[in-house]
What does this fold into?
Amino acid sequence: MFNLKEVIISITNRCNSRCKMCDIPIEKTEELDTPSWKHIIRDLPSCGAKTLVFSGGEPLLREDLFELLSFAKSVGLNTCITSNGIMIDDSVASKLLQTGINVVNVSVEGPEEVHDLLRGAGNFKKTVLALAALGKHKIETTIATTVSRYTYKNLNSVVELAKEYNVTTVKFQPFSSLFVDDKKRIKEFTISENNLQEMETIIKDVILLSARYGIAVNPEKYLLNIPYYLSGKSTGSNNVCGALLSSCPINSKGEIFPCWVLSGRDNLIGSLKGNSFLSLWGGRRHISIIEKIERKGCPSCMMSCYDGNFGQAGIKHRVIRGLSKLKNRGFRGYLAQLLRKLQKRFKFYFAYRGSLAALTRKFKGIFRRKAISMTKIQEQGTEGVFTEIEIAEQMLKDELKR
Amino acid sequence: MDRLENNLLGEFETNINFYFSEVLNYPFAKPYWIYLSLSHECTYRCKMCGVVKILKGYELPTEAVEKTLNTIDSWKQDCVVLFTGGEVFLRKDIFHLFDYSVAKGLKVEVVSNGALIDKELAFKIISSGLQNIAISLDGEKEDTHDRIREKGAFKKAIGAITNLVQAKKEILKGPQISVWTTIMKENISELFDIIALVNSLGVECLVYHPVIVAQDDMQNTQADAPFWIKGNDLEILRNQIEKIVDYQTKHGLVAFLHDPYLWLKYFNGQLCRKDWKCNPFVFLNIGPDGETRSCGASFGNIKDMDLDKCLVTAEALKARSLMRLCQKPCLQTCWGRPESDSLTKITENFIAKVRNNKNKNKLVKEALSLLNNYANKLKEHV
It folds into this structure.
């Protein structure tokens, strides 16, 4: 049932930025100490986790972050942090590199005036310096942008910035009321129906621009749904989210929830203070909560981490767009761009999602989903088995000669 | 070939089946231990047991158990069916199920808290063809056992053992009567003293196993877990182990299913795969809800599909893959099979056993042919 891929630890609620669209730092909460986090991280690979993301708050405010990143790497996890970039200078980037980090995800809201309006004066410059420092150390970098009334007009500038600093991926995510305590302020970030068409046009431009630059963005269907979501005309994905089974959010107190949106006390899977991850993930309580969500339906959201839900439905659209590109650019031009795009995608996949073997298994799985037979042996690794058989056979043959 | 030779070859075949199952994650071997948890219902609410809480309201229907026993019977391989619960003797059809499985020639064992075993029931149990009956006893002192289980539980358990021993003396045959003791903080200083108690009662076998914190929490090795032995108590445990090992060497009675000093590592959180590892194919638990699992996720439900099919589902494959990654073994002996860990070791043991046999060459050739079969099977598919 469970297919854990990614664990997201909100390692601290402390933050050095006071963003308009986020109230997280207002709530001060306790944090688990370093040994407790290590205890938890040690268990993650046993449950199938491939990637560990540290978010916050600002994760770099935790003094032990580098130690935890190195530790996570030592147990075989791919690591990623989500940061506002304010603290990332040359020395921090160098330290991050030393931990073997796979991806640093930096938040950028748009051009300087928009970014600073939302995240605080002077922060854009610091964030850009962070992108430069990460680029200098050749650390895989991605950008995250919150799409709202404030930012939607300048989304193209984010893609341009990504191109300038060799960023492989830009993840757009519509503003979420989840992070705002004062619900009266929600309207400040949403758009009216009058702006819907305009926003849709901008997003289509963003899709084209990112394709031209070979920068990966969210699935097209997801992006095209954002205007409708922000204007209240769509509620996001109505399907029960795949992230429930493949992603595990843990808050700074060590509490596990099925997802960030469903983080009410009634959905608390358990606390890792006094319980091991192995005992909670996939346990009875977890299963019963998932079953409850499946029964009652997912409240739906547009958190970008779950945008895979939109991926499959966009295939038809992708084929049509691919054909039109082929027509416009000719076969060689189209092929060259496709290869560039694939190269970037693969680079990102290797850095973030896992090994080539995992990727191969994913594709094999599409064609052989039901083939649970001896053929599965191929994927289990048979190194040394033939040698063991030969040794055993030789021992028996020697015994025959005695 | 005579029976002994057949057994030698059968043992070799079973061991290589388990070996290749573990290495290649495919069930060439059928489970050796099948725990049938018949019902969540229990007479007690023991502090360390989560069955009653987790599986409330579930009970395996008689037909489903019979169907499962038929499937197990169809396996060629040697295996043991252990009826457990909840408390199995709360099931009205329990003796029917004993008869049903014994009639098929299956090895059947049962574990009980002894609460319901009076003289009459003891006679029925002793005459029912079981291989083993285990009574749980968690302390040498009445107070300790009752604190963990329920007031009066100690007297009932002792009464049950006495009744069973008495019945066996009268009938002159019957199952092995054993006692299972869970090692935990609460009874740590009484572990050795339990030996004298069960010896005086006429028990034939004593098995210790370390506590699992809860049924849904098999591998909790955190220091603050309930019942967990930590700090200075570990020295007490070491002391108890030394005395138990000394007694066992001289007098037997205690059945060690692994090196008892591993308990120290287990409670210290230092037990790793190198010391003790599960073979995900050795053990299968069928819960009162019908879900089958070795450890972790369910393979499938016997109410929906045949047991044989449950063993080869995608879920089974995945759950076993995760078990193979487990770095924190829980020392539950049912899951280990050290004798099948290495093909070289299996072959060495086999050779040592057949070396002086008059049909040695024939047996070795048969073993070679079994290995050849595996090699060919692998070459064909890999």
Summary: Residues 6-308 of chain A form a domain with the TIM Barrel fold (CATH 3.20.20.70). The first helix of chain A runs from residue 34 to 43. Chain A has one domain: 6-308. Confidence is low (pLDDT under 50) at residues 309-314, 364-380 of chain A.
